[in-house]
Amino acid sequence: MSQNNNIIKVEGREINPAKVDGPSDVFSSASFQLAKSRWQEDNDANICVLCNQKFNQIRRKHHCRQCGRVLCSKCCYAKMPLPQLGYGDAERVCDFCKPVCELVTKARSPMLSYELEGAKGLSEFVRDPDGVKRVVETGGLQTLIWLARQGDEQMRGYIISALHCLAMHTSLHPVLAESGTIKAVCSILSNADAEQILIDGISSLMIFCKSSDLKTQAIKDGALHPVLTLCNHSQDAIALVALKTLSLIVEHAGTHTAIIESERSALPKVLALTASSDEQVQEVSLKLLAHLSMGTDYHRQRIVQEDFTTGKGILKVLRSNPNNIQVLCNAACLVGNLATSEHSQGALQEVIDPLCLMLGSHTESVELTTHVIRAIANFAKYPQNAWRLIPYLAHFTRSCLKSANNALKFQATRCILHLLLHSTNETTEGLMKEGAAELLKGLVEIPELMESMHKSILKNVSERCRPM
Fold this sequence. Notes:
mainly alpha; two-stranded antiparallel ribbon; two-stranded antiparallel sheet; about 55% helix; about 5% strand; Znf_RING/FYVE/PHD; ARM-like
């Protein structure tokens, strides 16, 4: 039996993954050898595990060199070299292990034709759960990863197809990651042109990046470079999956600097995609930028500067009327974050009007309205924006201040308090027409604010005093 006790399940099948003698990451190794299985004791075996026939003086016991189990001569008849286990001479292999062992042995050949035959066979095996079990238990996984070091395009196609199939089984992810799968996928993506190879490769990376643990591993293993490159691929399907993958990667704040300061002009390329005629591409690119805008103030300034340089794509989105409301939601979220940058207020002036006009035209989307009023409240913090915002006071009151939604109500309150501070007379005049009552009621609903106001007042007057 194998020495590995880390049994995992794939679609109800128990799998005991093969282990390597030495570092688990076979992609980074010039060569590798599998750890030999511990042989099952003869006394523990009364029947052949494959044919269920009892052992006797005629039906003798034999050990499979691959799995270590005890079988009869009929079920453990084949002999072949097993270089992956360090056996140069032909050794016994059972009928269960034989098909994959033959492929792994061929894949270790110095002849390209045999390597291709091995890789092709392994890629076909992993298309069903029974085949996955055989490939993972007999070292086929490590063999595929190791072969990814090859430069042959046909070989890459077989390998990436197999790795994509294996990546779809979540329970295999830890084994795949520690064996160097992500490095292999990144290497293939960086050196391939064939459309199907690119689709399988970027789809595999997207699967890995959906896991918070593997996302970090993917970044460490070099996923950022091929993903950024494919974001601008001529095939829309490939570019969209790359964008979605990048959107998952940027959820990890540690990647923001690498993207924004990339020498590959990653930021301008992503901003250019906000003008795509494909609304799904727009949605994903804006979501990605919204994630990036959560970083440092310098990052926000870079986004604003690059957007200005590349044609004010964000403004164009805010002025559009897409069928996909999520495009506007992501754009408003992005602008709301950018609006917190003091040094970018001048460059963002033009987005304020279309942003305010959204409050009355998209009342059906609470998500959009929440992002919009948050962005407006952030703009209201700066005195230079007051003159643009005051004409929309009635919009803030009707859409947000009178809302039963606390998030909308509180963001509107933030906005109006900023405006009262910067343009007291104009704001007061506007509130007297509509909104004063709602503002006061809203203030009362924030106990911490009322307490803070009382404390501030008491710094100027006393609750108790001596007679005059």
